[in-house]
Write a structure and sequence with these properties.
Chain lengths: ~900, ~110
């Protein structure tokens, strides 16, 4: 039987075999004729020639045979489709339920695949985008840093591998667009003119930046995005050449750039980045991108980069420490690398849900086919081949699945915008994601086909193995075949349980990891903090005195507001990128301190630590005595103290900041007057870095200047009650008498954004798990229900003979229990396989954590056993007399 | 050689079935057998033979098997299936009826109408 089936399937697909055989057969014919002619007296050669001529055009004969074959195949397919359609229409309940399930399950896959495609697969929207690369510094141990102006200029001039090179810098909190209408906060990028050569982008109107625009002192120019141009200026071409006030300063608009070229997010305005390579400026960092030259490979460029790095070290011995190297990466990989694993994991998870749904449908189809056993038996008796009968089942499920996938495209089209809305804001490239892209459509239809086959293969085999005679003879539906069908059903249920377990465990781990992340102590209290940021404009005074006065004045005004407990200023908020500076320890000339510039450096006003509720471990916080002219002081955090001194008892030690940055950045030695608790400045998942704090009032002018060029002025305000209610009053206070529009946010929101990715993952996986659990329990229920129907008489007899409900329960549940155990074993194996993939997504949690895995298994067991027990209860509840009476 | 008539369309199939019914044959053998049983009166166009054989096989009236010919070469042999045998019976009855009807019609004398 199996051999027959195997041969049948083999025959369907062995086209080359067929061709080979056909050629052999025709050759035999010609040879046989030639032999006969030879027997009749012709020479061997003449006989062969004559036989060939008589035979005629072998190729044409082959064509005709092929046509017969294909024509037959198409005819059969048409019949099968017709038959399948009729059946599906008549059994409308089954069709509707199945179509709905398939449409939803496939739609889920389509949506996730759309994300995967748009972010990971689709090339960047630039010409030859595979030649775009990014260069950055890599500190041994995985920390990645952008490049400095000096490094950029050096690499640009020394490398021959690049056709064009550019640097850019995303202005952290946006810039203000004022004048000509309502002031607006827009996103901006500062970029060297080379950026548009690297990207090979031509402006829609006007021109891009030229080399002259990047010279310090030249006229301030600006490029606008098409989006902003249409949105705010009504696509008026006269805007080019006119002047706009951006960041308080007048800029002349020189061009409009087309849509879609934002790296990595949507950008509204571009200003020229004026790089001043300076050995002293090691804190201004930029993203460096380049386009590989014609014929240059990534590896060649990397090799050259190694040499360039060595040359850089020779020329600037102090600027690149030994454990830092330059790394070159494909731009798209660089942008999307961190979301690759989570996205692929999501795709796998939603695929598992589809698979579980397929098994349910296979189950349903098995049930339908067993009802039609007599039908099939008649077909077989009348001469249909088993292959034909099996094919019919597959055509039916295939048709359903294809229809389902078409519906799925529609459903996915509606779901996708929703998903994008709840996705973390920093997911690159999602803005252009759409279901209508060809690869997505092909994927969906292909998935539909595969789904159809998956759903149909087991029912098809079951039907094909049916014994024609037996089903025609018996009449109570109890045939040998149905035992086999039941075995298939049990097998499907086991697979479902296994898959559901794997998914549940994944979900459990991600959820627990997220909870752990939420519980991480950030080192301060974000709950009742409102942040206020005001970008500085060109006309603002950038001396310490000026800035410090401004800062203090705002603090006073804010504290005077009702319901405000305190306010302070700081260079930047935690989890948002801030300056790092090198320092030396006084008394340890060559060895002490951190020259790499990785230590986080902040300017704060008095009251910062109190406002943020950062604990004071030793000494004191800043207060009013730490003004300009007073002895220079500094506060460090525990991490710095422990890392560089081995103890927190560091009061009265002194640090010198920025000595290697040259005389321009001269800063007197500062005495450590306080040690504060650690703050997770780099994000909740990173350990707290070493950090140093200096008072605003005591910072040398040069430092104030360089910070203010990149960062806005930031204040934090602590409210007495829920901060949401204070946003308006703080904003209006900040706008009084000012020209800038302040950016007012809840610090709690900023912190939430930091875990937005994990939250997104957990949400989606949670939804998938719940669906999978539901589908799985349906599967288990149906298996149990079917076996209950079979055994109702048995239970009727038992109950009539006085068996207790419990006594009936155990034998009935045995099957469910064995499904559960087998499924959990399989699931554990699958989960083990997944564990490495999952490990990188988890925070301080092992992917084999027994508590989580155990909980998932227990939950699954409860649901499965309940689903299996339901039919038993129904059977037991039925009156024994009734079941005994029916036949 | 007696005069041979052209093969009417559709007759090739039934002739093939008949030829094979007398024993399993390869393609060339079918050709020879048909010539034999029609006593040379009907000629089979070689180009039509193999498409017909494959068609009959697809319809389930013939089944095939690779074997060895009587001069030790590998050849594909055709055999009649149950369905094929039944089809042959039906066709034979049809032809007989047709032949009788035609004969009766063409033999009608003026006075019998």
């Amino acid at each position: 039987m199996w051999t027959h089936l195997r041969l049948r399937f083999a025959a369907l697909f062995r086209r080359t075999r067929f061709e080979h055989d056909l050629a052999d057969e025709l050759a035999f014919h010609v040879q046989a004729r030639a032999d006969e002619l030879e027997r009749r007296g012709l020479s061997s050669a003449a006989a062969r020639r004559r036989a060939l001529i008589e035979f005629g055009n072998a190729e044409r004969i082959k064509e005709e045979v092929r046509d017969v074959r294909v024509g037959r195949w198409l005819e059969v397919l048409r019949q099968d489709l017709h038959y399948a359609t009729r059946r599906l229409i008549s059994d409308s309940l089954f069709t509707t339920v199945t179509l709905a399930t398939l449409a939803l399950a496939i739609a889920g896959n389509t949506v996730v695949f759309t994300l995967v495609y748009s972010v990971l697969i689709r090339p960047l929207p630039f010409e030859e985008s595979e030649r775009l690369v990014e260069v950055h510094r890599r500190v041994q141990g995985a920390v990645q840093q952008s490049v400095t102006a000096t490094l950029f200029t050096f690499v640009r001039d020394a490398s021959k591998s690049f056709e064009s090179v550019a640097a850019y810098d995303v202005v952290a909190s946006g810039v203000n667009l004022t004048g000509a209408g309502v002031p607006e906060h827009v996103s901006g990028v500062r970029a060297t003119p080379g950026l548009f050569d690297v990207l090979r982008v031509d402006p829609r109107l006007g021109r891009a930046f030229a080399a002259e625009d990047a010279i310090v002192g030249s006229e301030a120019v600006i490029l606008m995005s098409e989006g902003l141009w249409r949105r705010r200026f009504g696509a008026d071409p006269a805007i080019v050449g006119s002047s706009l006030r951006v960041g308080g300063e007048a800029h002349r608009v020189v061009g409009i750039l087309p849509e879609g070229i934002s790296i990595p997010h949507e950008v509204d305005v571009w200003t020229p980045l004026r790089l001043v390579p300076s050995g002293e400026d090691q804190a201004n960092l930029f993203q460096m991108v380049a386009r590989l030259g014609e014929g240059v490979s990534g590896d060649q460029a990397r090799a050259e980069l190694g040499t360039v790095t060595a040359a850089f070290r020779t020329q600037y011995p102090n600027l690149l420490s030994g454990d830092v190297s330059l790394e070159l990466r494909d731009l798209q990989v660089s942008m999307t690398g961190s979301v690759r694993t989570p996205l692929l994991f999501l795709l796998a998870a939603v695929g598992v849900v589809l698979l579980i749904a397929c098994f349910n449908i296979a189950n349903l189809t098995l049930a339908r086919e067993s009802v039609r056993q007599v039908d099939t038996a008649v077909c077989l008796a009348l001469g249909a081949t088993r292959g034909r009968v099996m094919r019919r089942v597959l055509v039916e499920t295939g048709l359903l699945a294809l229809l389902g996938s078409v519906l799925a495209l529609l459903v996915a089209g509606t779901l996708l915008p929703l998903l994008i809305r709840i996705a973390p804001g920093d997911l690159p490239l999602v803005a252009a994601a759409a279901v209508s892209h060809r690869p997505v459509v092909l994927f969906t239809l292909g998935l539909g086909l595969v789904t159809g086959i998956t759903c149909g293969v087991i029912p098809a085999i079951q039907t094909g193995l049916g014994d024609a005679k037996a089903s025609l003879v018996s009449h109570s539906g109890r045939v040998a075949g149905s035992r086999r069908a039941q075995r298939f059903r049990v097998g499907l249920a086991v697979a479902q349980v296994g898959l559901a377990l794997a998914l549940l465990q994944g979900a459990g781990l991600l959820t627990y990891s997220y909870l752990l992340l939420q519980q991480v102590d950030p080192g301060f209290q974000p709950e009742r903090i409102v942040s206020l940021q005001v970008p500085l404009s060109g006309s603002d005074e950038l001396t310490t005195a000026g800035v410090s006065t401004r800062v203090d004045e705002m603090v006073d005004r804010l504290t005077a507001l009702p319901g405000i407990l305190g306010a302070a200023a700081v260079t930047n908020l935690p989890t948002e990128q801030g300056p790092g500076l090198p320092f030396d320890i006084v008394g340890r000339p060559d060895d002490g301190g951190d020259l790499s510039g990785a230590t986080q450096w902040r300017m704060v006003s008095p009251g910062y630590f109190e406002t943020m509720e950062i604990p004071l471990v030793r000494g004191r916080a800043f207060d009013t005595r730490d003004r300009s002219g007073a002895p220079p002081v500094i506060i460090v955090n525990e991490a710095l103290a422990l890392q560089y001194f081995g103890t927190t008892d560091v009061l009265s030690e002194s640090l010198v900041i920025g000595r290697i940055m040259g005389s321009e950045f001269a800063d007197p030695p500062r005495e450590i007057v306080g040690v504060v608790g650690n703050v997770r400045e780099l994000g909740l998942m990173q350990p707290p870095p070493p950090q140093m704090f200096v008072p605003f009032a005591q910072t040398p002018d040069r430092y104030t200047q360089f910070v203010s060029q990149v960062l806005p002025l930031t204040w934090v305000v602590q409210t007495a009650t829920a901060p949401l209610g204070f946003i308006e009053s703080i904003r209006s206070e900040a706008m009084r008498g000012a020209q800038q529009i302040p950016d007012v946010r809840l610090l709690g929101g900023v912190m939430a954004a930091a875990v937005a990715r994990q939250q997104f993952n957990v949400l989606l996986i949670g939804i998938f798990s719940v669906i999978a659990l539901g589908l799985c329990s349906i599967g288990v229920y149906s298996v149990a229900a079917y076996s209950m129907t079979e055994r109702r008489r048995e239970f009727g007899v038992r109950a009539a003979l006085g068996a207790t409900p419990l006594g009936v329960l155990w034998p009935a549940m045995r099957q469910t229990a064995s499904i559960l155990i087998a499924g959990q074993l399989i699931g554990t194996v699958v989960a083990l396989g997944m564990s490495r993939l999952l490990g990188s997504l988890l925070f301080e949690l092992s992917s084999m954590d027994p508590g989580v895995l155990g909980t998932a298994a227990a939950l699954l067991a409860i649901v499965t056993l309940t689903a299996g027990a339901l039919p038993v209860k129904q059977a037991v509840d039925a009156q024994p007399a009734e079941t005994l009476r029916e036949d | 050689m007696p005069p041979h008539a052209m093969l009417l369309p559709g007759t090739l199939d039934v002739l093939v079935l008949k030829a094979v019914s007398l024993g399993p044959l390869h393609g060339y053998g079918v050709l020879l057998r048909i010539e034999q049983i029609t006593k040379g009166a009907l000629l089979v166009e070689q180009g039509a033979l193999y498409p017909a054989l494959y068609r009959l096989e697809q319809q389930g009236l013939l089944t095939t098997e690779w074997g060895v010919s009587n001069n030790n070469r590998r050849a594909k042999f055709y055999r009649l299936t149950l369905a094929g045998r039944r089809r042959l019976q039906v066709q034979r009855a049809n032809w007989q009826r047709l032949a009788d009807a035609m004969a009766a019609a063409l033999d009608t004398r003026p006075g019998e109408v």
